[in-house]
Write a structure and sequence with these properties.
heterodimer, A: about 270 residues, mainly alpha, MetI-like fold, 14 helices, B: about 325 residues, 15 helices, about 65% helix, about 0% strand, globular
Chain lengths: ~270, ~325
């Protein structure tokens, strides 16, 4: 819009800040109640007069949140690494080759964008059980590596099609094998879309609840969302303790978000291509 | 390509980077001929796609096909003996009030989220895209809820929306005690509370996508509209809105499909209750399979869900790609 600061801009500024305060209100209550002892029965919106850290230490110990945090890191890092590797590699022929098999494979993979996971969840649950993978982080890494293929490949193909072939052609003339051309020439050019794919996949995997609820239920290996759900179920009346656990689960995400906010926001809007 | 990762302010949107303009990159016809003759020698082989295909087949394709088969059986999930019962699972659905309600809620939530979340997101984007001084801080702040785990924000809201929760306390404190409600316990209200929580979390996501679209609108277009004397509403409607078509496509796709598949927030906020007042297809599928042991019926519901997702995404793809062509 116009870049001059007029009285109307000031009004807009105040309105936007008011909206932000309303949107931020739950965060205030979250922290306010997390630092409050259970015996304090005053209104949830009144500032806590004698803040305590006891809820955090107890939630950390009772909820096995440290182990859950490590599991979430392992599952997210493993899945995202695998899915980026296989999807970028698959996108290369699918974007460049116009033969019939290439179009067929493309459509097959794109089918995965439409199929809701709920359809595959129960039969896959049975397969995982038969393979003895239920309750392990491996089942989740394997699962996300396949589940995220269609979307990630779709991102890579769209990006690759807009890239000129000149560099690859030059590499081939210099005697590169396709694999070397991919590694040394194509992959470096894919960096912007890789950041997008990395951000979107990492957030999706880290935050997923349904799958680990299915595949890890009853096991000691939990990811953060499942550990939190279990914790809420166990301490359902003690909301101060629950809020401390929620804060613990949010803090690592927000640290990463605020330190990498530009890449993350650009990653999310990077899916915006006609 | 401009690096997204280390882009300096103002933030670079990928839209700008990926359309090499015809002026910058003239392509003489001679070069095209050389391309064509090289193409056969330089084709990357099909087996590059093999690892991705194997994973995709194992996790999605094969189980989905098996899922469709189970939808025609009475399998309970454990017993190796089950029989093929034809369409019985589907015939049963119209007589099952829980299934009828879940289908209705699923559609209602998807439509409501799509309209409200994108409406709020667009207003936020227009506000943040103005000359206000706090725009960069607000952009980062307003998007923050979208990266937080949905199950966690849902548990937070479950407390806030309780009878003695912070929302009612706040209403009381500002003299609106008559507005106090049992937000999640009232069957008439619970579904809308769920929608509200999702809008709270993801309006910033819609905002960011619209913002990328707005920032790809060239400055000259705004200025030209200013000189023509167009008011801000008219300028938005006839100049900016058509240019936002790609942002609308992405946003509508995300919110419709996200709304149809909704599970986490309902699970944490209400568990589908009170009664079945907030059950969606996803929560009902989960309950039928794991608490009632009706795998066959549950997967039949998943087939219905697949059908709704396919119709919605195909339909909106057709409509929006037509609009986008009309706009460009």
């Amino acid at each position: 819009m116009s870049r001059r600061y007029t009285p109307r801009t000031l009004v807009l500024e105040l309105v936007m800040i008011a909206v932000a305060l309303v949107i931020g209100f739950p965060v205030y209550v979250l922290v306010n109640l997390a630092v409050r002892s259970t015996s304090d029965r005053s209104s949830p919106i009144a500032p806590t007069t004698t803040p305590t850290m006891d809820n955090f230490t107890e939630a950390w110990a009772q909820g096995h949140l440290g182990g859950a945090l490590i599991n979430s890191v392992v599952v997210t890092a493993g899945s995202v690494l695998i899915v980026l590797a296989v999807s970028s590699l698959a996108a290369y022929p699918l974007a460049r080759v116009t033969a019939r098999w290439s179009r067929g494979l493309f459509l097959l993979i794109m089918l995965g964008l439409v199929l809701p996971f709920q359809l595959a969840a129960l039969p896959l649950y049975q397969t995982m059980r038969d393979l003895g993978l239920l309750g392990t982080a491996w089942s989740l890494i394997l699962f996300y590596s396949g589940l995220q293929v269609p979307f990630t490949t779709f991102l890579y193909i769209g990006f690759l099609r807009a890239l000129p072939r000149d560099f690859e052609d030059a590499a081939f003339i210099d005697g590169c094998t396709p694999l070397r051309a991919f590694w040394h020439v194509v992959l470096p050019m894919l960096k912007p879309i890789t950041v997008t794919a990395l951000v979107l996949n990492a957030v999706a995997v880290w935050n997923d609840f349904f799958t680990p609820l299915l595949y890890l239920s009853g096991s000691a290996q939990q990811t953060m969302p499942v550990a939190i759900a279990g914790f809420v179920g166990q301490y359902i009346t003690d909301w101060n303790l629950i809020f401390a656990a929620l804060v613990i689960s949010i803090v690592p995400i927000l640290i990463v978000y605020f330190s990498l906010q530009r890449s993350i926001i650009n990653g999310f809007s990077g899916g915006l291509r006609g | 390509m401009a690096p997204v990762a280390e882009g300096r302010s103002p933030p670079v949107t990928t839209t700008e980077n990926e359309q090499p303009s015809a002026i910058e990159r003239p392509l003489p016809p001679a070069e095209e001929v050389v391309f064509a003759s090289r193409r056969s020698r330089t084709a990357p082989p099909w087996w590059f796609a093999a690892p991705a295909l194997l994973l995709f087949a194992f996790v999605v394709l094969v189980p989905s096909v098996r899922g469709v088969y189970y939808a025609f059986t009475d399998w309970d999930g454990l017993d190796p003996d089950f029989s093929f019962i034809g369409l019985a699972n589907f015939v049963e659905m119209p007589d099952d009030p829980a299934a009828r309600q879940a289908i209705w809620h699923t559609i209602l939530i998807a439509v409501a989220i799509t309209i409200i979340q994108n409406g709020v997101g667009l207003l936020l984007a227009l506000g943040v895209n103005s000359a206000i001084k706090s725009r960069n801080v607000l952009r980062v702040f307003l998007f923050a809820p979208a990266v937080v785990t949905p199950i966690v924000t849902a548990y937070l809201w479950r407390n806030l929306l309780g009878p003695d929760g912070a929302v009612n306390s706040l209403l009381g404190a500002v003299g609106l005690a008559s507005w106090q409600q049992d937000w999640l316990g009232d069957p008439q209200l619970a579904l809308w509370s769920v929608v509200g929580v999702i809008v709270w979390q993801f309006a910033g996501y819609s905002m960011v996508i619209f913002l990328a679209g707005l920032q790809s609108v060239p400055r000259e277009i705004y200025e030209a509209a200013d000189m023509d004397g167009a008011g801000s509403v008219r300028r938005f409607w006839s100049v900016i809105r058509p240019l936002l078509a790609p942002a609308f496509t992405v946003n509508l796709m995300l919110s419709i499909i996200g709304g149809i598949k909704l599970f986490d927030q309902v699970f944490a906020l209400t568990g589908g209750g009170p009664g079945h007042a907030t059950d969606t297809l996803s929560t009902l599928i989960f309950k039928d399979a794991f608490t009632l042991g009706e795998f066959g019926y549950s997967i039949a519901l998943a087939v219905v869900l697949t059908f709704i997702v396919s119709v919605a995404s195909t339909g909106q793809y057709l409509v929006l790609s037509r609009n986008e062509r009309a706009a460009s």
